[in-house]
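Check out one such.
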Amino acid sequence: MKKFILLSIFVCYSVFLSAQIKINELMASNASTITDNAGAYSDWLELYNPTASPIDLAGYYITDNFSNLMKFRFTMTNGQVVVPANGYLIIWASGEVTRGAKHTSFSLSADGEALALVLPDGSTIVDSLSFGPQWRDISYGREPNGSATFKYFSPASPGAVNLTANAYTGLAASPVFSAESGFYPSAFSLTISSTEPGSTIYYTTDGSDPSSGNLAGTNYTYKNQYPELVGQTAGPSYTNTYRSYQYNGTPISIINRNSPVLPNVVSNISTTIKYSYTPPQADSVYKGTTVRARVYVPGKLPSEIISKIYFFTPSGLPKYTVPVISIQTTPSRLFDYTDGIYVAGKDFVDYRNGTNMSGTEKNYNRSTEIPVNFEILDTNGVKFSQNVGLRIHGSGSRDLDKKSLRFYASGAYGAPEYNYPLVPTLPFTNFKRFMMKTSGNDYERTLFKDASISQMAEGLNFENQQSRPSVMFINGEYWGIHHITERLDEYHYANHFNIDADSIEYYSGFNENNVPEIEDDSGHWGVTLNFMKNNAMSNTANYSYIKERVDIESFIDYTVMELYAANWDWPIGNITYWRYKTPYSSTKPKGKDGRWRWALYDTDLSFEEYNENYFTKFDNPNTADYPYKYLIENAEFKNQFITRYADLINTHFQPDRLLEIINAKKNVIDAEIRGNITRWQRPSTYANWEGFVNLM
C-alpha cells in the first residue's frame, strides 16, 4: 500500500511539473536567425521549464492540429529531449524527423495556426497557444517568460530569456502615399504621411528596403567579366550604393528618368557567365521612378513596406499593351557578387578556381528565397501590390541572362495568398505560388512557344499551365517580356479540383539515385511503378489493377500531346504527375478518384525536330521509368492509344486550330517585342523573330 501511495505521489508530482512547461517562443519564418543541427533555417519553438527539476519529454506529443493531439510523439530518447531546470529546449519544426529527436514531423505555418504540448496519455494538454501571421526572422512569445502576455521579438531569443527591450506589440500602420503607381504626363511632387502618432517615415528611391539604419548608405560589389577557363581571372569589381532617407515632410520630386535619360543601375550588371559583357545603352532601358516607404513607431515593429512606381508618357496613358510588373527589392539580394541570386557571382569564380565545393557552381543556382514587392499595373487600370518571396526558377535556363522567377505568397511577407486575377482566364483568383517565365530555351526565338502549346492542350485530359504575357521592371528598369504563369504544385491542383492541398502527392524530379521523388509520398507511386516493371501488362488482371491506380485516359492524352509537339526535352525530363491521396473510387470524378494524372509543362523545345520519330525515345535507358514502355504490351492500351492519337490528329490538332492559337499569341506581344529586342538583343531583329514564329 505504501508503494502504491508513493507511486501515486510521484506520478502526480511529475504531472504537476509537466503542467508548468510553457511554449514560450516560436518562429514560423526563420530565414536567417538560427540554424538547426543540419545547418538549415528550420522553423522552431522554445519550451520553457520554470521549475527546479528537469523534465524529460519522452512519450509526450506536440501538434499543430487540435483534431489530432497525437500528431507527433517524442520517442524514448535517452535524455535527448529534456527541458532543463529553469531552462529552455529548442524544438525544430522542420518536418525532417531524420535529423534527430528534437525535430518534428511538421513545420509551422507563417500564415498562423495553433500549437499544443500533450501528455503521454494523448489527451491532456500541457500548454497551448494560437498565433496569427508571422514575419520573417521575428519571433512570437511570452513576455515575461511563461506569462500570458504575448509579444513579437526582434531580435529573437531562442534558448534565452525573452527581453522586454526586444518586445513589440505589433506592426506600425503603413505609410500613405499621395499618388498611386501608374503613368503620368509630367513630373509631380509626392507626399508620404502616417496615421501613427510620434512616428518617423523612412523612404528609398533605388528599390531597397527603407531602414532607419541605412541613412549613410550601403555598398555592394559586382563583376561584369567572369573566367571562361579554369585558372583564368575574373574581371574587375564595380560598386553600387543603396541608401534610405528620413522623410521630413518636404514633398519628394518624382521625375521622368527617361527625359533626360538617366544612367542605368542594375541593368549594367552582368547576369550570366560571359567573359565579355557590354551593358546596354542607357536610352535602351526604359525606366520608372520607384519609391518605397516604411513607418517606425516606438514600441512597435516597423510597418509593412509600401512600394510605388511611376512612369511617364506624353499623354499620361500606358506605354504598354500588356500588364506591367514591377519588382522592387534591395539590389544586393539580386546582384551582389557574394550574395546576389541573379548573378554568377562568387560561386562561379570559386568554382573556376577549384575552391567551391557547394555544388551550386553559380550564385543563381542557389535555392535562396528573398523578400520583394510584386506589383501589377494591369491593362484595365487596376493596380495590385503585395510583398512576396522570390526564387530563381528553372534548370539550365538559369544560365540565361534573363531568368525565370518563382514567387511565394506567405504570411511571413504580409498575406498567405496572392488574391488577384493574375491570369483572368482561370476560374479562381487565389495564388499561393506563381512564376514569371522568360520562355526558357525559346527566349531568343518566339518567346511564346510554351504558352501556345499549353493552350493547344486545352480540353485534353491532363493539367497544364495557363499564362499571359507582361513586361517586367526590376527596381524601375525595364527587364523585358515575361509570362505570368501558374506553377504546377499541390496548390495548383487544389485550386483546379477544389481539394485539400495537404492531401496531394506529386512527382518533383529524380533524387541522387535516379529514383522518382514524390512530394508528400504515400508510397502509392512506388508500388504502382514496381508492379508495372515486374508484372506482365499483357495480362488482363494485371492491367486492370493498374487502371485503378493510373488514369489511363490522362496518361494517353498527355503522351500523345508530347509526341505530337516533338518535345526535344522529354521524356527524360520535364515530366510531372500527381494524385489526390484517397482510395480509388470509380464513382468519384477525375482528379478526385485517387488515381495518378499527368500535367504538361516546359515545352519550350517543341516543334523543332518535327521530322524525327519520337517513339524511339522510349527505347532510351534513361526513360526506363516512363509507363508507356510497359503499358504498350497490353492490347487494350495499345488500341486505345492508337485510336486516340488518330482522333486528336483529325480534331484537336487540326492545322487551322493550331495556327489560330499561334497567331493570336504572336499578336499579343507583337507591339512589345521590339522593346525586348532592344534590351536583350534576343531575338536579334524583328525579322528574325517573325522567322522563328513561321517555323512553329
Q: What stands out?
A: The chain has twelve helices and 36 strands. Confidence is low (pLDDT under 50) at residues 1-14. Residues 655-680 form the longest helix (26 residues).
